[in-house]
Amino acid sequence: MNQTVPEPPTAGRRSPSAVALVGFMGAGKTTVGRELAARVGWRFLDADELIEIRERRTIEQIFREDGEPAFRRLECAIVRDAIKTPESTPIVLALGGGAFIEPGIQKCLQEARVPTVFLDAHVDELFRRCEQPGVERPLRLNAEQFCKLYEQRRREYLKAAIRVDTSTKAVAEIVKEIILGLDLVPASGAWD
C-alpha cells in the first residue's frame, strides 16, 4: 500500500525575487527592510541610498539643485536597475516615500511581479518620527503640509499587495506580519 507523505509547508512554495516596501516618510521602510532581509536571508537595498551613491550627492542636494522631477527620474532608474539585476539572492527594496506614487515605478514593480508592502501609521506619528536631529527631509515642511501630502499619497500606497500598520508594533512583529502576509519562508524556519 502506497502512502502519501505530506510535503513540508515550504515545499513547492516559490518566493518572489524581490519585495518592495512602500509608505510615507517615517513609516519605517529602512528599519523594517533591514530586519526583514535578515529574517528571510535576502539582500537589503534602500533606493535613496542607491541614488546617493550613484549621484555622489544627498537626496536634499538633488532636490535643491535639480528639482523633484529630476529626482523622480533617478528614482525610477534605480528601482528598475535594482529589481532587474541578475543576482542569486532575492532583495528587500525600501522605496522612498514618493516612489510608489510614480506610475512608471508601479508599472515596473507589477511587470516584474514584485509584491509591495505598504507600511502605514497615523500621520501624527509619522510626523513625529521624522523629527530626527540632523536628518533633512525636503518635503517635510510643516504639519499641515505633511498631512496633506500623506493623504494625497495614501490612495496610491493602498494599491500595495498588503498593508501593515506600524504604529504600536515592534519591528519583529511587523516583519512577522509581512512574512506571513506574503507567504515568505524565514531563513531559520522558526520564529524567535
Protein model, in words:
It is a single chain. The chain has 192 residues and is of the alpha/beta class. The protein has one domain: P-loop containing nucleotide triphosphate hydrolases (Rossmann fold). 46% of the residues lie in helices and 11% in strands. The chain is built from 8 helices and 5 strands, in the order βαβαααβαβααβα. A 5-stranded parallel beta sheet has the order 2-3-1-4-5, with helices on both faces. The longest helix is centred in the middle third of the chain and has 17 residues. The N terminus is likely disordered.
Write the layout of secondary structure elements.
Blueprint lengths: L17 E5 L6 H12 L2 E4 H9 L3 H8 L1 H17 L6 E4 L8 H9 L4 E5 L2 H7 L13 H15 L4 E4 L5 H12 L10
Parallel strand pairs: 1-3, 1-4, 2-3, 4-5
Helix pairs in contact: 1-8, 2-4, 3-4, 4-5
Key structural traits:
single chain, 192 residues, alpha/beta, Rossmann fold, 8 helices, disordered N terminus
Topology, number of strands: 5
Helix content: 40-55%
CATH architecture: 3-Layer(aba) Sandwich
First-last Cα distance = 40 Å
In the sheet with the most strands, the strands line up as 2-3-1-4-5
Tally of separate domains: 1
Q: Report the order of strands and helices.
A: EHEHHHEHEHHEH
Mean pLDDT: 85
SSE-based structural type: alpha/beta
CATH superfamily: P-loop containing nucleotide triphosphate hydrolases
